[in-house]
Amino acid sequence: MKNHSPRIFLHIISLIPATWLFWQMWLWYNFFPHDLTANPIEFITDFTGNWTIRFLLLTLCISPLAKLTKWRLIKYRRALGLYAFSYGLFHFLNYTVLDYFFDWMLILEDIFKRPAITFGMLAFLLLIPLAITSFKYFIKKMAANWKSLHRIIYIITISAITHNYMMVKADILIPVIHAMILSCLLALRIYFILDKKRMFKKK
Ligand code: HEM
Description:
Blueprint: H1 5-29, H2 40-69, H3 77-99, H4 104-113, H5 115-132, H6 136-142, H7 144-150, H8 153-167, H9 173-202
Helix pairs in contact: 1-2, 1-3, 2-3, 2-8, 2-9, 3-5, 4-5, 5-8, 8-9
């Protein structure tokens, strides 16, 4: 019999930030004391943006961790990627609905005139095809192309961290930590590619 506990655990952990946020938004909406600070919209944008990056980095951790530990972790990668997309969608919707009230002219102006927003939009737009093609049907249908497409997760994460770095107002510590984690993951990826080539040559 299959053990579903790790998967259930992963979903519970991943949903905790969203549940907490919805609860705080409900309190805010009903004029109760809440923890969304004096500027709830900005708080929600920062909160969802940071969780998007955390899930992107977690998704990228899966493959190297599976290789290093030989644990069968790849099956959890899709869920983590979809959580990254969901928090990213929440972040974008918060900006579009609560911050700009669907003022598309202003939103487009922001996207084209503020490089920080351009990077964020690029990351979000590139996440959409990854989310759509993350299902088994596309994995089978796209075969080798699927892997090539999903490599853009590195471009997405670089764009997202650049956006994060450019958006912070004072303390750059968090985006710098994000960038350091991403650099380690990229270095590991290069190491595995070189190692594979070396093994292939030996044979
Ligand atoms: C995958 C895509 C994205 C990621 C990972 C992301 C991540 C982040 C992060 C981490 C922050 C927090 C910066 C801080 O700590 O102050 C942030 C802020 C922000 N993001 Fe994004 N973002 C993404 C896409 C977008 C898009 C598409 C838009 C709008 C078109 C956007 C608009 C903003 C704005 C306006 C802020 C500043 C909020 C404020 O502090 O006033 N982001 N983003």
